[in-house]
Write a structure and sequence with these properties.
Length: 298
Amino acid sequence: MRGYADNPQGGQQMDMHLPVTLEGQPIAYLPHQDEEAAEAARGIGGSLTMSRALAESAHGLTLNEARVMMLAMRCVDPRLSPYKYARNGYVHVRVTAAEFAQLANLKIGDDGYTPRAAYEGLKAACEKLYERTASWTEGKRHVKLRWVWKAAYHEGEAWAEVAFSPDMTKHLFMLGEKFVRYRLELARGLRSVYSTNLLRLLMTRKDTGFKTILLEDFRATMEVPESYRYADIKRYAIVPAVKELNEKSDLAITWSETKRGRAVHSLQFRFTMNNQQAIESAELFDDTTSATAERGDA
């Protein structure tokens, strides 16, 4: 259930003016086609790629917003110029409620209908995306980047248009060597933003399976409340996230802490991936993955 849009690599197109059924119900609510159901059974295709700086940043997103942005990043081919996807320099992509349901692992009923929670989640995520920023520190410079300049949910059509902000595109395209890439399937069904944040953090060291990080840097990337003591971080951000990733993401993670005196100074994470995931770490791009994006008016 990939996003449908004008695809510079020859993908499928979707009619932007969806018809209505004889019963007056929007076609977006009709049961999935057989090939879509088969694709859902196989898992989520595609990967997302971003700069290392963005991967290690505080994303400032809720769980549903993070899902939308992961799906949006999955739509673009980072080998290409952003101008391949946009007019006026803005990159537009399309995220559907069916994709959202798949990433959230929302169960499709026996009648084949996309769960209503997927429509509501996608719509709610779009409402405040324009206000969200990613932030990180480069030396003495504190960087804040707006994620999008436009996020519009199309009521009754079950899809959202997401347009990346111009400053964000350089962290998604033509990345050279400093990039992080992982399969979207790893994030399927995660129920905590701490889990999605930890997954992204671990993928910055996918090649070694070992990530060490200062506690203060971990606090920033995981976006735990400033009021949290280490005991709270461990209880609410580390232990549940490791448990969920071990159960759902086909990762085997262990972790430990290093102290200076009585205080925890840094954290160490060790993880392994199954063979299929490990194979992809040797390749920057999988040519079998089709990017989908929309060339459209702002």
